[in-house]
Amino acid sequence: MKFLALLYAQPQNEPQYNTPEWDEMIQEFMTLTELYKNKGVFIAGEGLQDASTATSIKVRANQSELHDGPFAETKEQLGGFYLLDCKDLEEALMYAAKIPVAKWGTVEVRPVAEY
C-alpha cells in the first residue's frame, strides 16, 4: 500500500542553510533515504524549494488565474515528501517518525488512493 509523507515546518524552526546543523540534517535525510531503499519501501522523495517560489493556479469560467506563493497562508510550509510502499499504516507511521522534520515540524501521512 502506498503512503505519502508530507513534510511541513516553519522555516524559522529548521536548521539554517550552510550551517553545521544544516549539514547534519541533510546527512540524516540521506541516511534515512538509504534505509528506506534497503528496506524496500522507498518509491520517491524530494525536497521542495521555498514556498515563496510557488505559483498557484485556479481555473474559473475557463480562465486561468495565477497567484504567486502557496494557495493557503499557513505558519508551516510544505517542504518535501516521501512516497513509501508499506504493508499498512502502522509501518508507514514507523518510517515517517524517522523523518528529521518530525523533530521541529509535522509529518502528515496519508494513504494514496488507488483507482
From TrEMBL:
Protein name as it appears in the record: YciI family protein
Transmembrane regions: none
Pfam families: YCII
Gene3D superfamilies per UniProt: Dimeric alpha+beta barrel
Family: Belongs to the YciI family.
Domain YCII-related residue range list: 1-114
UniProt cross-references to InterPro entries, sorted A to Z: Dimeric_a/b-barrel, YCII
